[in-house]
Design a protein that fits this description.
2 strands; 12% strand; 65 residues; two-stranded antiparallel ribbon; alpha+beta
Amino acid sequence: MSVLETREEIMKMMLHNPKITTKDMAKKLHLTPKGVEWHLSNMKKAGQIKHVGSTKAGYWEVIKK
């Protein structure tokens, strides 16, 4: 799976379940949690996603451009 395909899948998961955890994304994508964190970090920097609220009670928001 390419980087773009992986990020597209991450965004789909977030839209389906905004409270999804990094660990759950890693399992579904067959990546390590650190691998998912790398994608999330780059997606945040690119303005594609943001995390709203606290780590435990927050949720993911996909930013449409």
